[in-house]
Amino acid sequence: MIRVLLADDEHLIRGALASLLALEDDITVVAEAGSGDEALAMARAHRPDVAVLDMRMPGRDGVSVAALLRDEVPECASMIVTSHAGAGALKQALAAGVRGFVPKTVSARRLAEIIRTVHTDGRYVDHELAADAIAAGESPLTPREAEMLSLAEDGAPVAEIASRAALSPGTVRNYLSAAAAKVGAENRHVAARIARERGWL
């Protein structure tokens, strides 16, 4: 039996997926998690063969969980299921040792096949996600510009971003203006959205 950990913060999706995978003769879901930290704890406790991780979860995201699992539970192969992918996200996932990168639109039967592939040391990267990632190209943002855009994502004012980043408001404005210009956005909010969609944050 292939022992699987499912991690997704959307309870309905996670439960439905667990039920569908339970219909497979050679797959059993041994643990479920609703956050990155919970996924880590479950993986340490249950030592699954494959971790199916949502890209975006509260706390740690799927890629950072995969990176930690590679070191802490090396017998567990990780795969990312996502509805948001870009060049940065795919590259980060592969660098973290992720063996599967799959869209959330995949069927349960196809997901089971991919779990089997990943379990036998194979790799699977969805063709459309790979093409989108390549089309998005390399990030033009410096690490500091990406950090400022991340802090601006939730609509925080410049003063708050400056406080959180321990920078002056003027310096933050400069970083945000440069980032917006590089991605061709009219303001920091649009720039953050574009950068997130392209996997640069």
Annotation keywords:
alpha/beta, Rossmann fold, 2 domains, 10 helices, 53% helix
Topology:
Blueprint (H helix, E strand, L loop, with lengths): L1 E6 L3 H11 L5 E7 L2 H11 L3 E5 L7 H11 L4 E6 L4 H9 L4 E4 L4 H12 L4 E2 L1 H10 L6 H10 L5 H8 L3 H15 L4 H10 L4
Parallel strand pairs: 1-2, 1-3, 3-4, 4-5, 5-6
Helix pairs in contact: 2-3, 3-4, 4-6, 7-9, 7-10, 8-9, 9-10
GO molecular function, one term: DNA binding
Protein name: DNA-binding response regulator
Pfam families: GerE, Response_reg
> In the CATH scheme, what's the topology name of the largest domain?
Rossmann fold
What general form does the structure show?
elongated
Instruction: Provide the spatial order of strands within the biggest beta sheet.
Output: 2-1-3-4-5-6
The secondary-structure class comes to alpha/beta
Work out the helix count. Answer: 10
What CATH architecture of the largest domain would you give?
Answer: 3-Layer(aba) Sandwich
Strand fraction? 5-15%
Termini separation comes to: 37 Å
What is the share of helical residues?
A: 40-55%
Q: Which value, in Å, is the CA radius of gyration?
A: 18 Å
Protein name: DNA-binding response regulator
Keywords: DNA-binding, Phosphoprotein
GO molecular function: DNA binding
Organism: Streptomyces violaceusniger
